[in-house]
Amino acid sequence: MLTDGISMQTLTVDEFDEPILLNLIDTPGWVADDNGEDAARVCTNLVAFLEEQMDSRVIEELKVRRDKYAPNLIVHACLYFMDPLHNEYRATDIPIIKELGTRVNLIPVVGKSDLITLTQKLQFQLEFINSMKRHADQVSLFDLPGDSVDANESMTGDVPLTMSRDTRTFDKHPDFLGRCYPWGRIDCMDPDQSDFAVLRTMLLESHRDMLRQHTVSSIYEEYRCRQLQSKKRDDLLQRCGSLKLRNAFNSSALELNGHRQV
């Protein structure tokens, strides 16, 4: 089923040391075409969405009296899925990765990895890493500071990660998540067959704090400084495009003016 627009679902994960309030955001994919118009359109919409979340935070911080209960919906990680059977991924993926990678922690993932052999998987990973080093060296995909050196090496040594999707469970093995083929079965939780468990641990446990810290101290801070230094008030307001954010901005402007008169 194709995703038509950007949608968000909030759930609580209670399997680690503390409950985690997790926002899952589903976004449209794009269809490869000769001129790349569909990819450019999807990328523009995603960039606008990411920036609107950061703009809302900038506006909140401009207020004299901030709302401590104001939702903070800044995105801390983006899973960028690539088709392993599409050999010309570099021509269209690289510009999108460069655009998104300056606005969110980008984690490249190869979907449908059960359709390729181990040799093809390793070749895809090698070509991707070399391509990133040549064309997108300013995007930090591999060297973000983690909680430990060992954790980083185990998580980022096989970028992009590979996963196969499961939509079924089996009566005889209710805890098994995978796919059955005439020649065998794929276990999505087996690290030798899929990186799903690795990615899950990375996002929710081992690298969770690192991703949030890098978002706040680096990605958001750089964006905030650029906005305040180079964007006029009307430009920022137009980028938000939300009536709620516009009202908040106007409210903050009134508060600032009143504060100066005191």
TrEMBL record:
Q: What is this protein called?
A: Septin-type guanine nucleotide-binding (G) domain-containing protein
Q: Which residues form the Septin-type G domain?
A: 1-230
Report the coiled-coil segments. Answer: none
Q: Which GO terms describe its molecular function?
A: GTP binding
SUPFAM superfamilies, per the entry: P-loop containing nucleoside triphosphate hydrolases
Q: Name one Pfam family in it.
A: Septin
Tell me which species this is from. Answer: Dimargaris cristalligena
